[in-house]
UniProtKB/TrEMBL annotation:
Residues 111-137, 144-153 have a biased composition (Low complexity). The keyword Membrane applies. Keywords: Membrane, Transmembrane, Transmembrane helix. This is Uncharacterized protein. It comes from Nonomuraea fuscirosea. The chain crosses the membrane at residues 6-27, 39-62, 74-102. It comes from the Bacteria. Residues 111-163 are annotated as: Disordered.
Length: 163
């Protein structure tokens, strides 16, 4: 029975190591898009990976420790290892949760357009926005984000009618 238990423990460790390594690599490749969340996720995966390795070594060594130390002396070691495992699991899981709720970087395309003045006004509207030089009141300043298209006053900026 002990051999089957060891095989199951080793398979579980291998699956968890592969899962956490894959998660850390995936988060590293998406760092530019997700920023802080990706970094927190990578750290969380690494912390959990360290926990899996420590628990794996402990589980594989536990029967030998019981034989060599006796069950009475093994108790405090088991308590310390359980507390260390709990601390690592809580820390790693907490980091993954914070990674999910962390603020994301804005999409690169939207950020580039905003920096380049993507929402520039049409030529006919720029004169209208500059002030009352044409006798028209100045329009309110534009807020960032989508703005409905404004129409010029009648006759201004319109192509001549053919008739």
């Amino acid at each position: 029975m002990s051999t089957l238990s060891n095989v199951i423990n080793i398979i579980t460790m291998i699956v968890m190591v592969l899962l956490l390594l894959g998660g850390a690599i995936l988060m590293a490749t998406r760092r530019a898009e997700h920023g802080r969340g990706s970094v927190l996720g990578m750290i969380g995966c690494v912390v959990l990976l360290v926990g899996v390795v420590i628990n794996g070594v402990y589980i594989l060594m536990a029967p030998e420790l019981v034989r060599s130390l006796g069950f009475a002396q093994y108790g405090p070691i088991a308590l310390v290892m359980t507390l260390v495992s709990l601390l690592i699991q809580v820390s790693g899981t907490g980091l993954l949760i914070f990674a999910v709720i962390a603020r994301r970087n804005p999409p690169q395309q939207a950020a580039q357009h905003a920096q380049q003045g993507w929402q520039q006004q049409p030529e006919w509207q720029q004169g209208y926005q500059q002030g009352p030089q044409h006798g028209y009141p100045q329009a309110p300043p534009q807020q960032p984000g989508w703005q409905p298209q404004q129409r010029p006053p009648f006759g201004e900026g319109q192509p001549p009618a053919h008739g």
